[in-house]
Design goal:
By secondary structure, the protein is mostly helical. The protein has one domain. About 70% of the residues lie in helices and about 0% in strands. The chain is built from three helices and no strands. α1 crosses α2, α1 packs across α3 and α2 runs antiparallel to α3. The longest helix has 26 residues. The chain is rod-shaped. It starts with a helix and ends in an 18-residue tail after the last helix.
Length: about 80
């Protein structure tokens, strides 16, 4: 199982299916489980984890608002000599 292939698969599924990527990968995992194909199921489980992490990051990024910088308090004023 190549990590790059897992990330590429997850990325392409998010691009193709959007929010439905999690549902689509779950269907594929069910089919692999019913067929008794353990290697495919393990691979799809890793892809599902990558999809969950990738989509979580996108949602947090979209919801994040830039914080306003707090004004710097002036502790002392200096006078020119």
């Amino acid at each position: 199982m190549n990590g790059t292939a897992i990330l590429n698969t997850a990325s392409s599924m998010i691009e193709a299916y959007g929010d439905g990527a999690k549902f689509h990968i779950a269907e594929q995992m069910d089919r692999a489980l019913e067929a008794g194909d353990g290697a495919t199921y393990d691979h799809l489980a890793l892809v599902a984890k990558a999809i969950a992490l990738m989509s979580m990051t996108r949602q947090e990024t979209a919801a994040a608002k830039p914080e306003k910088a707090a004004p710097v308090p002036v502790l002392r004023t200096f006078r020119a000599a």
